[in-house]
Design brief:
The complex is a heterodimer of chains A (about 350) and B (about 525).
Chain A (H helix, E strand, L loop, with lengths): L7 H15 L1 H16 L6 H26 L7 H18 L1 E2 L5 E2 L3 H24 L5 H20 L18 H6 L1 E2 L2 E2 H19 L1 H11 L1 H6 L4 H27 L10 H11 L11 H21 L3 H37 L1
Antiparallel strand pairs in A: 1-2, 3-4
Chain B lengths: L7 E12 L2 E12 L3 E5 L6 H8 L7 E6 L2 E3 L4 H6 L2 E4 L11 H5 L6 E2 L3 E2 L1 H14 L15 H14 L4 E5 L7 H16 L3 E5 L3 H7 L2 E6 L2 E7 L5 H9 L17 E11 L5 E11 L3 E5 L6 H8 L7 E6 L2 E2 L5 H7 L1 E4 L3 H5 L6 H5 L4 H4 E2 L2 E2 L1 H14 L16 H14 L4 E5 L7 H16 L3 E6 L2 H7 L2 E6 L2 E7 L5 H8 L3 H11 L1
Parallel strand pairs in B: 3-10, 3-11, 6-9, 9-10, 15-22, 15-23, 18-21, 21-22
Antiparallel strand pairs in B: 1-2, 1-4, 4-5, 7-8, 11-12, 13-14, 13-16, 16-17, 19-20, 23-24
Helix pairs in contact in B: 4-5
The chains are: A mainly alpha (about 350), B alpha/beta (about 525).
Chain lengths: ~350, ~525
């Protein structure tokens, strides 16, 4: 690339190019949607869209939490296992409550169960943050460790068996548990409403709060952020705990949708979440990324895999295509960075 | 010492090097004499390093030419320079801490068996031979990361010797060496001289230069201001050429009385990993409206002191008072809350977040004031940034552009803006003029004066004599972590400052040696 262009016309071209590059994930989403609308029958039917968005929502939750972690310069590999463990906790609480060992047990209603399970997810996130900030373990290793620990704990909780028939008990107020996964408000599934709330909350944090700014600052340059008075460790605690919360919600939703919880649930979910974040323009080096981009990225992945299924493409090919899309996304991202730097430098050169 | 005794091995003629926004070297004519020590002296940013980088092939001249013997050469890379027998030992060591001494010495020139695998035994033997020559007992299999800095420097020198360098450039080789190690280095230099090697020696320690040098070249603002044989040269001659007769226009103190004491530090200690103290019992006080210059050589502990004040090192000892109130919090955020703010030395590493926009960088320390209940008031933020951009005359196309698109001077003003937004009572400025051009320097100094006139206390760290003398109301000199001199603007002089900055160097180093 040459930076020696001087006339104003190329700068104008670059600006248009930059807008297109910035909107690339959204353009990709429109393209795949149009493609499947033409080639996959019933793709645009209301029923299919609802099912598809439910699939997408699960990944989008994890990807939103993951985006914060990656922007802060870390990575959270443990989310898939947290999904599994939290599902098991939810299942156990519905079936057994907490046995106090005195011949009677405490039973919980749906809201209490959700709060406890969320607390478990947040707690595992806090352990991740503790390992990373206080014990100086690299994020990749720390969360890889909790990935195994949480998965193993999920298996231990039931000896690897499924907790079936999570229909709850009206007597304890837990019969509404299935509504989380199966119910809808105004024709839109509950899980989608939850995603909308979490997504808006995360976007608000990222864009309009000091905390959000600090997340970007820590990922961009931890030393400078520290010297600017940013409490780096607090920020890291927040991102990992938030990621844990998102994973716990996914655990609740899946166990509710299936009315059962299996300890292997959520295996490799973390990779899909990372893929969605990267597809949405999040930089693995930290400091860059948007919540909106991540959600669009999750939709691209979801629409792509569901659409390919409907077209009858083999699942092996689906995997290959998904990989190619991710690589293409990152290549285009690099191009965007270069164009962006050029536009900024040209604007600055004009000022002198 | 007749000139013909030392033939000229390398010449630069009309060498000019322009960086974006600043001329680092202006039509320099430099003769490098073989079999002699060619001393190069000048203040930071005077162009010494640029000239050496040109000779070593790291940078290329914008105009002008380099001759080796009678042949004009174009050195486009360090390998190129190495082919002509030019070796350089950088100030920042370019070693791989994760590899052994022998691996480092033969990096990219590995001794191999039939071009396939590395002949470790031979590398080890040659390393031992080199170490014997340098009178050091460094194990070829030791990891470089485990060595002391002085030993690492020896490894760097050995690396150049292994390439049979005819011209050896030493950039501040003694800054990290103990007195005993310096003696050994000087013996090695003598030996190399006898072998006819031309040595370029850069250092800030003037006494040392006079002792070791045969020829001296003084640089100021990219121009060579003096070049002669070392005979008859004394410290005052060097200082005169380094600084010049006419002091540059520094904005002078506006005649107004200082306010009350605004900051006090008491017995500040910062332990380092080798069992000593990087900051060793520093106490000082500062009054409102006063600019206190802290002068010292590299490694004197100045930067560490201001960073300790800022709360960067939680394990440091000492008491700090702002407006008579003692600092309770050990963290940076707490110190900022008390009214302290820092302009770090290394803008890129510590000052800015390159990915973020100018606006986001400027408000990073003061988001608390710009937000209510955890909600940033974006319009207020934009307005505040606009105010500071105007006040500090920062040239920007848009506050939304990434801060990395700015020139050094404007980046520095963004960092100053960030610090000022926290409405500090005390401003700690660490080498505020580093890496910015002369025009921007003048701007930064003007801003400092204005701030002091508004009642801010400023502690400003520099290794530039001219700056510290021109700007400070009072000067403290640090050496080896301790305060070794205090001057008012009446009593301060170049020689006095230089003498104080060298105090205790040999002594404490020897103490350290016996401890380890």
């Amino acid at each position: 690339m040459t930076v020696t262009r001087t006339s104003s016309a190329p700068a104008g071209d670059a600006s248009v190019l930059l807008v297109l590059l910035k909107a690339r994930t959204f353009i990709a989403l429109i393209l795949v949607t149009v493609f499947f609308a033409i080639f996959a029958p019933n793709f645009l039917s209301a029923a299919n869209l609802v099912i598809m968005s439910k699939h997408v929502a699960l990944n989008a939750f994890l990807a939103v939490g993951m985006t914060f972690v990656i922007i802060s310069g870390g990575i959270d590999l443990s989310v898939g296992s947290i999904v599994g463990l939290c599902g098991m906790v939810a299942g156990y609480l519905i079936l057994n409550g907490i046995d106090l060992g005195l011949g009677w047990s405490i039973q919980f209603n749906t809201l209490e169960i959700c709060l406890i399970v969320s607390a478990v997810g947040i707690f595992i996130g806090a352990i991740n943050a503790f390992l990373i900030t206080k014990l100086n373990v690299a994020p990749f290793i720390a969360t890889l460790g909790t990935l195994y620990v949480a998965r193993g704990a999920a298996m231990l909780s039931s000896d690897g068996r499924t907790f079936p028939n999570l229909n709850g008990n009206a007597e304890y107020g837990s019969d509404t548990y299935r509504w989380i996964g199966a119910g809808d408000i105004l024709g839109i599934p509950v899980s989608i409403w939850m995603l909308i709330i979490i997504g808006l909350l995360a976007a608000y944090i990222a864009g309009r709060t000091p905390l959000g700014r600090f997340i970007y600052a820590v990922g961009g340059n931890e030393r400078a952020a520290g010297l600017s008075g940013v409490k780096v460790n607090h920020v890291k605690y927040f991102v990992y705990m938030f990621s844990g919360l998102c994973a716990a919600l996914v655990g609740i939703i899946i166990s509710s949708q299936l009315a059962a919880s299996h300890p292997a649930t959520g295996d490799t979910f973390e990779l899909n979440a990372i893929a969605a974040a990267v597809l949405g323009g999040t930089s693995m080096a930290g400091g860059r990324g948007r919540i909106g981009g991540t959600i669009v990225g999750a939709f691209v992945i979801g629409v792509l895999s569901d659409g390919l299924v409907m077209m009858g493409v083999s699942s092996f090919w689906q995997t290959v295509i998904k990989g190619l899309v991710i690589i293409a996304a990152v290549v285009i991202d690099q191009a965007q960075q270069r164009v962006q730097a050029r536009v900024a430098l040209q604007a600055q050169a004009a000022v002198g | 010492m007749a000139p013909d005794q030392h033939p000229i091995g390398l010449r630069i003629r009309e060498g000019t090097k322009v960086y974006p926004g600043t001329v680092a070297l202006k039509s320099a004519n430099f003769d490098l004499r073989m079999g002699a020590v060619n001393v190069l002296v000048g203040e930071n940013g005077a162009g010494k390093s640029t000239m050496m980088k040109v000779i070593a092939g790291v940078e290329q001249l914008t105009s002008g030419s380099i001759y080796i013997g009678e042949e004009e050469v174009h050195l486009t890379s360090t390998e190129d320079a190495a082919r002509y027998g030019i070796g350089i030992v950088f100030q920042e060591l370019n070693l791989f801490p994760n590899m052994t001494v022998a691996d480092n010495i033969f990096i990219n020139r590995e001794k191999t068996r039939y071009g396939i695998d590395i002949d470790r035994a031979r590398q080890r033997d040659e390393t031992r031979a080199l170490m014997r020559r340098l009178e050091h007992d460094i194990d070829p299999d030791a990891l470089v990361g485990d060595l002391k800095v002085g030993q690492q420097q020896i490894v760097e020198i050995a690396k150049s010797l292994a390439q049979n360098a005819r011209i050896l450039i030493l950039d501040e080789p003694t800054s990290a060496l103990s007195a005993a190690e310096v003696e050994i280095l000087f013996r090695v230099i003598d030996e190399l001289k006898r072998d006819g090697v031309g040595i370029v020696y850069i250092s800030h320690r003037l006494e040392e230069l006079i002792r070791v040098g045969d020829y001296i070249t003084v640089l100021r603002d990219g121009v060579i201001t003096g070049a002669r044989s070392m005979e008859g040269v004394d410290v005052s001659w060097i200082v005169l050429n380094m600084i010049g007769d006419a002091s540059k226009d520094f904005p002078k103190t506006l005649d107004q009385p200082f306010g009350d004491e605004v900051f006090r530090a008491e017995s500040v200690y910062l332990p380092n990993s080798s069992g000593g103290f990087t900051v060793n019992g520093v106490s000082l006080s500062l009054r409102a409206g006063e600019i206190l210059g802290v002068y010292g050589l590299m490694g004197a502990g100045r930067t560490e002191f201001v960073e300790t004040v800022m709360g960067r090192y939680p394990h440091a000892l000492g008491r700090f008072y702002v407006d008579g109130k003692e600092a309770k919090s050990r963290h940076v955020a707490g110190r900022i809350g008390m009214g302290l703010a820092i302009i770090p030395e290394d803008r890129k590493q510590d000052g800015l977040i390159q990915l973020l926009s100018i606006r986001e960088n400027m408000t990073l320390s003061s988001l608390g004031d710009l937000s209510k209940h955890g909600h940033i008031d974006l319009s207020k933020e934009k307005k505040t940034v606009g105010d500071y951009v105007r006040q500090l005359v920062i040239k920007i196309a848009s506050p939304e552009n990434p801060v990395s698109s700015l020139s050094g001077g404007n980046q520095q003003k963004v960092v100053i803006g960030k610090a000022l937004m926290t409405r500090p009572k005390v401003l700690l400025m660490d080498e505020p003029s580093r890496g910015i051009d002369i025009g921007a320097k003048a701007e930064v100094f003007r801003v400092m004066r204005e701030l002091a006139a508004q009642g801010l206390g400023i502690i400003f760290v520099t290794s530039n004599l001219e700056e510290v003398l021109g700007l400070s109301d009072r000067i403290i000199v640090m050496s080896n972590g301790s305060i070794t001199g205090e001057f008012t603007s009446e009593t301060a002089s170049e020689t006095g400052l230089i003498a104080a900055s060298a105090v205790g160097h040999a002594v404490t180093h020897q103490q350290k040696e016996t401890v380890t």
